[in-house]
Fold F-box domain-containing protein.
Amino acid sequence: MNISKTAPTSVFARLVDVQLNIKRVTATLTDIVYDHIPLPVTKVFRNIENHLSFKFIPNKNDLNTFSIEFNNSNEIFDEAKLYKKLLDSRLMSEMVSSVRITVDESILSTINCNEECPLFEQMASFIAKIFDACPNAFILEFCCSIGVFYLITKQLKVPNIEIMKLSFTENQKADIHFDMAAPIYEFEKLPLLKEIHFSTLDDDTIISPPSIIPVYENILKQIPKNKNIKVILIDRNTHSSYPYIFEMYLVGKKYEINFGLHGGIFFKILPTNFSYYEMDNLVEGKISIKDMETLKMVLTILPNLKNFKTLSISFCPEMFRQIYDNREEIRDFKDYFEFNLWSNLQTIEKLHLCFNDYKLVYKESPSYGEVLLIMKNMAEHIMTNLGESIKILKLEGIHFLTKKMGTILSDHCKNLVDLYLYNIKMVNVHFLEDMESLKFVYLNSFFSLNMPNNVEMVIVRPEIEEKISIGTLDGEEFYDFIQEAFNKIFQICFDTFLNEKFEYCVLFENVLKWDTYLKKIDSF
């Protein structure tokens, strides 16, 4: 591709390892406008993590203090030394989006956890310092017992949290007691909070559903109605947990909470229940589908979910193997899939379609080519049934995105703003060019594309082999490579390295909003 460059690369401005200077800019400005910059700007972030993980370990000799393990490194630090290390290494930066907290509770049986112990105030203070040093972090995860969560959050003051993820563990060694009716958190201290995630079952360490329900209700009843906070229930496909999941849903309905449900068992049994309960507060769902029965059930109930706006469907390899094995009995492909049901997607605003790689499961099967054709036909028909309500679309695992698919999307999804392409092998150069409303694109490779002029931001996180080759380019070579690949000028470029290896780049047409791309990365 030949493009006309409006900016001379001979005077290409490369800002290498000046993160502290840029952080000082972000303290007063939320974005950079290219009109104020005379040259294209790129910045290299080295040894950057988007997610930080801390394990708090109470000290046996001083129960008012704790040590910390950082990012599963097996190195133990005291609070002050770790904080200094993070500052010196620049791991705390505008690039961090989430912070995860776990707590080693093996010696907490010696603490009276009903009292306001200084230990938990210190833990809350450390969390606040991390968020202060990471101005764009907006996700806080907790994996700890219910009692410890109560005692930390009671002291916590982090106003920029938008998403809180909770996995409550059983505390076998520490006999922690707490008042179930006591306030857990003053939600007024979280003015930006939008979502709370609950994992009901994960592994043997996660608390059982019956134990979580009273705590869960205690949290929900404290959410002010004007907050419009969404609660996500994450079920791990365990049949025994279904009654509790449904009970948790009904508790949320009592407090007029909007809900999202992630997990197959709920959706599989939902059709037998939705006629008895109004489901207007169910707004989001995520499900893996292994058979046609489950798929048809999900599509059938969608019209009854009046406020349902977000759907993630992952098609498992087993389903496509089932289709292939029964191919001789399938007379009409469209009738078999009941494609008329896909029109029920017309009101969806955010959709994720994942076609899991059949070849990873059935490597020796000679049917791979035929299965790819089934996937292609299925993807095309689903796209044909999407409506103008779609604003965010993630396509994953489709082997080849054709020009026809791009035309279908541009014709049917006229309000599509964000497009994510994951695990895609090939994309036609014309796939994007007619998407006139598109503002953001996420790619898993530097595909040759005619990028529309209306696209303002692109994130590219390539596969390992491509990362290696990209990492060998110097600044001017990388900039030229990007312009050539996308047939478009991007004035601002961030390329991120981890352990001296290229990870991903973020491209902006002319306006950089510091927190926007982090939320795009964590959108799904």
Notes: DSSP finds 16 helices and 24 strands in the chain. Confidence is low (pLDDT under 50) at residues 1-38, 172-176, 202-206.
